[in-house]
Design goal:
By secondary structure, the protein is mainly alpha-helical. The chain has three helices and no strands. The longest helix is centred in the middle third of the chain and has 27 residues. It binds zinc ion. Zinc ion binds next to loops.
Length: 107
């Protein structure tokens, strides 16, 4: 499935984003493979959850130990064009967490 929505939301929140994709079966495109049933998919999915958890336990400490070298943390810096005084209070309150540092906050 596409990751466009997640990637876009992460970008707007100035978060780094990566996808971990773990396959549960290949029967949709490997015609020589036997068909799968829900039980076998669930079995692989449970194993994949374990793999993903182990991966995150290893990677997250490594990522958090080093400074971010990308521009994700300032993705909105050049994306806000409306003059801050023109942004309605309701929008300021709703977006305060994301845009306050650019002068669009409620404070
Ligand atoms: Zn990043």
């Amino acid at each position: 499935m596409t990751q466009v929505t997640e990637a876009r939301l992460a970008r707007e929140a100035e978060l780094c984003y990566a996808c971990i994709a773990l396959v549960t079966d290949y029967d949709a495109w490997r015609e020589e493979e036997e068909g799968v049933d829900a039980a076998s998919v669930l079995e692989v999915m449970h194993a994949n959850v374990d793999k993903a958890q182990r991966l995150l336990r290893q990677v997250v400490p490594q990522l958090s130990a080093r400074p971010r070298a990308c521009a994700c943390g300032e993705a909105l810096k050049a994306a806000l064009y409306t003059a801050p005084e023109q942004v309605p209070q309701e929008a300021r309150e709703r977006l305060d967490l994301l845009v306050a540092k650019y002068g669009y906050g409620t404070a």
